[in-house]
Amino acid sequence: MKRLFGNIGWLLGGRGINAVLSLVYLALATRTLGLDGFGYFALVVALGQTVTGLANFQTWQFVVRWGSGEDGPGEATGFAIALDLMSVALGAVLAAALVWSAQFWLPLPDDLLWVAFGYCLVSLLSIRTTPLGLLRLRFAYGAATAAEAVQPVVRALGAVLAVFFMPTVLGFVLAWAAAEVAVAATLWVVAGLRERIDLSRISLTRIPRAHPGAWRFVWATNMSGSLNVGGKQVLILLVGAIGGEGFAGGFRVASQLGQALVQLAQTVSKAIYPELVHAADAAHEMARRMANIALVGGVLAVSVALLFGREGLVLIAGPEFRVVYWAMVILAIAGAIELVGASLESLLVSAGRAGTAFAVRAVPTLLSLLLLEIAMDWNGLKGAAFTVLGSSALSVIGFWVAIISLQQITITVKAKDEPTP
């Protein structure tokens, strides 16, 4: 637990830097572009993150899971890089299809379609989960945090330059693209200095031969990651498709401020997963303690959103974004629920139940997307936020039920294995 809290401390330090700088570039983008212009920007970024999220494999988990043996992470890293290359190829095809079809369902001007396609390609080429896996495998969270801090710094600097030299959607998209390239390059350099990366070991077959259930684990974690994207970026695209660019911009602001706890949940998940893999016997107790701590943090964060959220929105984004206050509060509650569930989901994945974790996440997420238009017709952005809240609540309840079932199975197996007196 001491090492776990130390790792979380490093990750939270990085999140803290990111949070402060994100307020800077969010304020610059919203005040420069306005509600509709920021909506166009939000749709372009959401397209790029959707493509990357759907095509990307959670390769850091593979490096941690299969790279901790006596032979080192060489084979696991080669497998992860091969999957990254496959992600780029598949993602490019998906990006072309989405951007071409965007003219029929997204409120994006024609001149921004090529900008969106270019951002998709840059995002794909900047996939960086493999070097993150190498650093987490060695518990080098300080180095990873320092490297990841490059992204918000470059974004903030790019946003300042955009305000003065190119105060358009294209200018801010270029700033975001530069940040993606910079952080990916930094992480690969830092990981390469700590661990030798042997390109001759790149292979899609060696790890599956040594671990027969590898592909099942790969697809389960990929689909879980895709569902996380579906709950965020795809949702922004659909909000824009249903309500227009103004709704997309408002929901992006509400989500970025209200769902900061979801990023915190991902931070906890990334820190606790390697510990659960290495300490399987104490995994349940570790996850329980983290969930209890997360509950307290979630309640405090929601209280802050309720008390100071309206003034914060006006201060950061401007008076025209005041209307998204309640949507932000609802999303903050959803983030608090996700924070509690982060350790539970990691526990399932570390126990080899990635497929179960995916199934538990899949049904509520798909249900929320199907109900989105009805919810928005009922209550606009607040309705969209309620679909996220319902999805998060159902998912975390499902994780809890699945873990209870897993514990009962473990107890039954141990009882059978005990010798009869």
UniProtKB/TrEMBL annotation:
It is found in: Cell membrane. The chain crosses the membrane at residues 7-26, 38-57, 78-100, 112-127, 293-317, 323-342, 354-372, 384-406. It is a multi-pass membrane protein. It comes from the Bacteria. InterPro entries: Poly_Biosynth_Transport (IPR050833), Polysacc_synth (IPR002797). Pfam families: Polysacc_synt. Keywords: Cell membrane, Membrane, Transmembrane, Transmembrane helix. PANTHER family: INNER MEMBRANE PROTEIN YGHQ, PST FAMILY PREDICTED COLANIC ACID TRANSPORTER. This is Lipopolysaccharide biosynthesis protein. It comes from Qipengyuania benthica.
